Amino acid sequence: MSAPAAAEPLCLADVERAAAAVLPAAVRDFVAGGSGDESAQAANRTALDRVRLVPRVLTAVAEPDCAVDLVGTAAALPVAVAPMAYHRLLHPDGELATARAARAAGVPFVVSTLSSCPVEEIAAEGADLWFQLYWLRDRGRVRALVRRAEAAGCRALVVTVDVPVMGRRLRDIRNAFGLPESVTAAHLTGGAASLAHERRAGRSAVATHTGSAFEPALGWADVAWLREHTRLPLVLKGVLDPRDAVQAAGAGVDAVVVSNHGGRQLAGAVPSVTALAPVVDAVAGRCRVLLDSGIRGGTDVLRALALGAEGVLLGRPLLWGLALDGAAGAELVLRLLHTEFREALLLSGCRDAAAARGLGTVTLA
């Protein structure tokens, strides 16, 4: 009697488990790991689970509308693919495959500065693109990246502001992690790019490379300079303090992403979802607010909306899907998320995302 076929994943956790079984340990650790003791990463999940929703009833909703506008980009659900480095570590098609999945799902794809495929090739896949910008030591290279993103048709710029240095990720250090020669930072060729491949005991080659390339002293004057040099919507990712969110709104920023970088930067940082409501209250509609870090299902998306976010960025689950089955695996992740979010809207009595933002919540002690 033949063995039963492996069951298709039914949730994002199933996808992660299946991907973990097929990935090399060092690559799995690179994706899964956090900084320091990884407590910030664990706290993201714990804090989300403590947010309980108060559903409405008798709202006469039979078919909820999942579609939203995300910072000027139409999206089939309130989700964008978060910027993540080096997708070709997970699958040979890399970001091209992830972009195909984003296009099929109708959600924006945020291309990382550390993408392993160039933005021009990703744009050819037809997804709506935003471009994530790490601030480089050479401002001329920053300007060139911005112009390149604009020319490729990117619809927003996402500046990551919580990486003056890369957080100390112990798994990568223990693994002496470095990129294989077949994977490169497509937008950072030349110069010190080879550092990302130079494996040495007791260090992360990826951290060495970013330390040489990234500007550690990014400040509000740089944000003002960028605001003057692009007409694209400007999003700051990595905001946790309401005071920074208020200053961002005053600087002409269109949106902030409340994020602790998936627990990969400051090891003791507050969980992103815990910081969300205070940021929403502080900006009082002067800029839009998104949430990142720890999203693992449709109920998490609904939690974010109920706490005031307009949408979320989804990270690691897309990489697990990519590792499992390329574009089809990433598309499966987004399809599962859409199914779960639609059901969450229906079960909570919400007609659409706007109604979800009016849901009550209780945070358990």
UniProtKB/TrEMBL annotation:
<feature type="binding site">
    <location>
        <position position="134"/>
    </location>
    <ligand>
        <name>glyoxylate</name>
    </ligand>
</feature>
<feature type="active site" description="Proton acceptor">
    <location>
        <position position="261"/>
    </location>
</feature>
<feature type="binding site">
    <location>
        <position position="264"/>
    </location>
    <ligand>
        <name>glyoxylate</name>
    </ligand>
</feature>
<feature type="binding site">
    <location>
        <position position="132"/>
    </location>
    <ligand>
        <name>glyoxylate</name>
    </ligand>
</feature>
<dbReference type="InterPro" id="IPR000262">
    <property type="entry name" value="FMN-dep_DH"/>
</dbReference>
<comment type="similarity">
    <text>Belongs to the FMN-dependent alpha-hydroxy acid dehydrogenase family.</text>
</comment>
<dbReference type="Pfam" id="PF01070">
    <property type="entry name" value="FMN_dh"/>
</dbReference>
<keyword id="KW-0288">FMN</keyword>
<dbReference type="GO" id="GO:0016614">
    <property type="term" value="F:oxidoreductase activity, acting on CH-OH group of donors"/>
</dbReference>
<feature type="binding site">
    <location>
        <position position="259"/>
    </location>
    <ligand>
        <name>FMN</name>
    </ligand>
</feature>
<protein>
    <submittedName>
        <fullName>Alpha-hydroxy-acid oxidizing enzyme</fullName>
    </submittedName>
</protein>
<feature type="binding site">
    <location>
        <position position="237"/>
    </location>
    <ligand>
        <name>FMN</name>
    </ligand>
</feature>
<dbReference type="InterPro" id="IPR037396">
    <property type="entry name" value="FMN_HAD"/>
</dbReference>
<feature type="binding site">
    <location>
        <begin position="83"/>
        <end position="85"/>
    </location>
    <ligand>
        <name>FMN</name>
    </ligand>
</feature>
<feature type="binding site">
    <location>
        <position position="169"/>
    </location>
    <ligand>
        <name>glyoxylate</name>
    </ligand>
</feature>
<feature type="binding site">
    <location>
        <begin position="315"/>
        <end position="316"/>
    </location>
    <ligand>
        <name>FMN</name>
    </ligand>
</feature>
<feature type="binding site">
    <location>
        <position position="112"/>
    </location>
    <ligand>
        <name>FMN</name>
    </ligand>
</feature>
<dbReference type="GO" id="GO:0010181">
    <property type="term" value="F:FMN binding"/>
</dbReference>
<keyword id="KW-0560">Oxidoreductase</keyword>
<dbReference type="InterPro" id="IPR013785">
    <property type="entry name" value="Aldolase_TIM"/>
</dbReference>
<feature type="binding site">
    <location>
        <begin position="292"/>
        <end position="296"/>
    </location>
    <ligand>
        <name>FMN</name>
    </ligand>
</feature>
<feature type="domain" description="FMN hydroxy acid dehydrogenase">
    <location>
        <begin position="4"/>
        <end position="365"/>
    </location>
</feature>
<keyword id="KW-0285">Flavoprotein</keyword>
<dbReference type="InterPro" id="IPR008259">
    <property type="entry name" value="FMN_hydac_DH_AS"/>
</dbReference>
<feature type="binding site">
    <location>
        <position position="261"/>
    </location>
    <ligand>
        <name>glyoxylate</name>
    </ligand>
</feature>
<feature type="binding site">
    <location>
        <position position="160"/>
    </location>
    <ligand>
        <name>FMN</name>
    </ligand>
</feature>
<dbReference type="InterPro" id="IPR012133">
    <property type="entry name" value="Alpha-hydoxy_acid_DH_FMN"/>
</dbReference>
